[in-house]
Design brief:
With 174 residues, chain A is an alpha+beta fold. Helices cover 17% and strands 24% of the residues of chain A. Chain A is built from four helices and seven strands. The mean pLDDT of chain A is 86. Chain B has helices spanning 8-18, 66-71, 86-89, 93-109, 115-118, 122-130, 135-144, 150-156, 172-185; strands at 4-5, 24-29, 32-37, 40-45, 59-61. The longest helix of chain B has 17 residues, at 93-109. The chains are: A alpha+beta (174), B alpha+beta (189). At the A-B interface, helix 3 and strand 4 of A face helix 5 and helix 9 of B.
């Protein structure tokens, strides 16, 4: 994409080298937006733009029962998020990340912190042409050809894939 | 009005005068910062670039004893009683420390996708460790742009307050505005 004159790209080459060594602009990824703060990759991938779902669903005010979840608090594991995506957005766990017609897929990444604790780190959304779309934290949004383009210390690697029919538009929070 | 003292003797004098007790202190010993708050001890690495290892710097806060206050009937304890405002802290060591840690935190967590990872960063925990002295700086930073300061605010502000209405959770701009309003109401901003 063309950036407006005077715009400074927030995602620096230094960050790419340190966190996502497989990202190469023009080869494995393209920028698709300017820097946007205020919501995370989860809200972005699930169409809840403008909402930080983390801040919402992990707050004490979030009514788990309202969304058919048990009253057990959610955790930050990949399975915890998968449970949430199934209950709120009709996603089901699947084996493959390969493109299927009429099916929308998401890939959940898991990383390991310094203490060895594993947790959900990122979500990428598959577009109709098979390319993946990601919001890199508060940095720019990108489209990447392979899921492995985001592998590294920061996001770890994709460990779980989920699918639902394409075209389902479910937005719970405004 | 809370007093910021820099030496132990000044603190003792203050305690005698005010009948208070030591509630919160920072001690810099051998490159480590120890934070003591209400009997619990947390230690964390102090790695500010401008830190001079040979110089001993201490900041003491002589708060009224909260435990006693809680036991007294009809006693209200305002957060304002123990917080210095931006003007009083301008150019101080805590301000420099906060700026260093906040810049490091923002730079190193910009690509994180979850608030869980963002608020677990070492520099963020160090800012929480700074305690009440960091509060005016956090609110000032929120004035610039919404950011994930809510977890730090929740840990720092005592007695606990939650100025965010349920329906604002998840909306960073509204959550930020709620905290800024709280800061203005308490004359911290």
């Amino acid at each position: 994409m063309e950036f407006p004159a005077g715009y400074t790209i927030a995602l620096t080459q230094e960050q790419i080298n340190a966190n996502w060594p497989a990202l190469i602009e023009g080869a494995t990824f393209e920028f698709t937006s300017l820097k946007r703060k205020g919501y995370n990759c989860v809200g972005f991938a699930l169409g809840e733009e403008g909402k930080d779902l983390d801040m919402l669903v992990f707050s004490k005010h979030f009514d788990l029962l309202q969304f058919g979840l048990s009253n057990t608090p959610l955790d930050h594991s990949v399975n915890g998020y998968a449970k949430l995506f199934r209950a709120l957005y009709n996603f089901e766990i699947c084996d493959s990340y390969q493109l299927e017609e009429g099916i929308e897929k998401i890939a959940l990444y898991e990383n390991e912190d310094e203490s060895g604790e594993k947790g959900f780190s990122h979500i990428a959304l598959q577009l109709e042409n098979g390319i993946w779309k990601s919001k890199l934290g508060s940095l720019e949004d990108i489209e990447h050809t392979e899921l492995s383009a985001l592998n590294g210390n920061f996001y770890g690697e994709p460990v779980l894939f989920m699918r639902r029919e394409r075209g389902i538009y479910q937005r719970h929070f405004r | 009005m809370q007093t910021l003292v820099q030496t132990k003797n000044e603190l003792k004098k203050h305690i005698k005068n005010e009948e208070g007790c030591l509630d919160f202190s920072h001690r810099h010993v051998q490159g480590m910062t120890h934070v003591m708050a209400e009997g619990s001890i947390h230690s964390f690495r102090f790695s500010m670039e401008s830190y001079e290892p040979k110089r001993r710097v201490r900041w003491y806060y002589a708060d009224p004893p909260q435990r006693k206050l809680r036991n007294r009937k009809n006693t209200s304890y305002s957060i304002r009683d123990s917080i210095l405002n931006l003007e009083q802290l301008k150019g101080s060591l805590p301000e420099k420390q906060f700026n260093y840690l906040a810049n490091k935190w923002k730079r190193e967590t910009a690509g994180y996708s979850t608030s869980y990872h963002i608020t677990k960063h070492e520099a963020y925990l160090d800012i929480i460790g700074m305690g009440k002295v960091a509060l005016p700086f956090i609110l000032k930073d929120l004035q610039q742009e919404p950011d994930y300061w809510f977890v730090a605010l929740k840990h720092i502000v005592k007695p606990k307050v939650d100025p965010i209405p349920n329906e604002h959770y998840g909306d960073l701009e509204k959550m930020t505005e709620d905290w800024l309003n709280w800061g203005r109401e308490n004359n911290i901003l």
